[in-house]
Each structure stands twice: as structure tokens, then as C-alpha cells.
Amino acid sequence: MAEKLIKVEDLKTQFTTKRGLVKAVDGISFEIKKGERVGLVGESGCGKSVTALSLMKLVPAAHNERVFGKIIFKGQDLVPMKDSQLKEIRGKQMSMIFQDPMTSLDPVFTIGSQIMEALGIHQGLKGKESKKRAIELLALVNIPSSEMVVDYYPHQLSGGMRQRAMIAMALSCEPELLIADEPTTALDVSIQAQIIKLVRELSANKGTALLWITHDLGIVAHLCEKIIVMYAGKLVEMADTMTLFENPMHPYTQALLRLAPKLERGKGRMPPIPGTVPNLIDMPPGCRFADRCPKCMDVCSQEPQWMEVEPGHWVSCFLYSKDGKN
Length: 326
What we know:
about 25% strand, four-stranded antiparallel sheet, 2 domains, Rossmann fold, 11 helices
């Protein structure tokens, strides 16, 4: 059985704003094993990206954030760590691919120099040796003429090429965990498929664990071994990919799967999820999906617990508790 790489326990990330306290991530728990590919899915604004930034301890301090709980990475809790300690982990052991490479890459430095910086900090490579490795990394992510591209600036590359360069940078120090925050959202379908294939191959060949964040269940179906479903700052379901698709338990997961495009639907309209996501400042009591749920019961005015209903299949819903009580 694969060893745990990272274990998240009751993680909460909150922001203090003029309007009130935003509970962006509100008490979530999960783990990722070494080499495991995990998908984190949910609608926009559900807390996926904040979860990723929290794991990397990259939530901007200007937002008056507070992080509670535990993030146990290789036996060490990252939550109380200072930036000086985290520098030994970020980039070297944990890396992140951001959604928009144009805002993540520095426009005034070449692609090569930005990769070489990470190689210098974490692997001690300098000069020709560092540049040679940067060229090898660009070739690894299937960038043609990598010996020329290494001297290009971000604006000289297409969106797909910039994203590949970001992946090369993230993989430069061969991290044990790679977090990808919707890295294919802004790319066309053919480039999306190439990036997904590339990440899957690199993960398989290098044994890198992956947390892939997306709103697209179709992507995680082909890429990930396990899927975690998030809604309004909470986890609502978690299972291996086949189980989740064959036996979705939470009404929200079921609704997401109904929304997934299918060829056999033809031109018919996809059934929308009624209602809106609750305000993260003024959360309703009880289950956060209750107002939109077709199976809502009186007991849903209370908050359901996160429970394992069958081996490896977790859900937060009163439909699966004894007598409607956890």
C-alpha cells in the first residue's frame, strides 16, 4: 500500500473583509499518497484554488488570511512554518502550476532564466550546466527547438507553449507533489488534451503525486485515480474515480455528472442546477447544498458529518446516516 505523502486535517482558510469573515475553506480533510493522481472538482468559487494556495502557504498576506488545521507533508506540519522553512519545500518538494501562465511568468526575464533560478536555488546548478538542464526540461515537455526557446520571453510564446514552460519550471526540481490549478482552462481543446497527456506521462514516469484542480469532470475521469468534490468551502464526496462515476452518492455530485457533456445528448439542453451557491460570508445553517437539493429533508437544517459509507468512499449527506442522524 502506497505511503501517505500529504495529509490535510480540518483545514480552514478565512479572510477578513469589510463585509465580514469569508470562510473560503471550512474544515476539509483528505490525503494524497505517493505517486497518486487526485482530482479536486467543483463549481467556480467553491474554494478549490484557495485550497491549493493554502497547501503551498501562498495565500496573499494582504488579504488578512488565517489558516487553521494541519497540513502534514512528509511528517511535517506546514501550517506553523515560517517562509524561511517553507523555501526548502516549495519548488523542491512541492510545486504548483498556475491557471494563467502569462501572469505567473515574469515578462522581463527569459523563460530559461526563470527555470534556471529554481535550479540554482534548489539544486545548486549554475552557468552552462544550469542552462543545459533548462533546455532538457523544455524538451521534456515537448517544446520544439528548446535550445532557442530557452532564450525567449513569455510574450514570444503561444498560450500552450507558455503553459508547457510553466510545467517545465514546476518539474525542474522533480517535486514529489505537483499541484495544478486549472492549468488548461484558457487553452483550446487540442492543446488541453496534449497538456493532460503530458502531465499524466510525467507523473507516471517520475512517480510524482498530483492534485489536479478543475471544474471539468471529463478531465479528471481520464487523468485521476481519485476524485474529491467540493462545494461552498466543504468537501461533499470523495472516492476512487470509477466508484464516483458509477455510484455518485451526494446530490451535488449527481448534479455535476448530469451537467457533464455527453455525445448522445445531441443538441438537447443540459439540466441546470437550480438556485445559487451560498454567500461565503453569510452561510446558511446546516447542509450548504440544501437550498438547491431535490432530496432535501428537515434534518438537513443541521450540518452533516464527513463519513465513510463504504471502504474508500466518503460523503457528507444525511441520506446515508442512520435514521437521518450522524
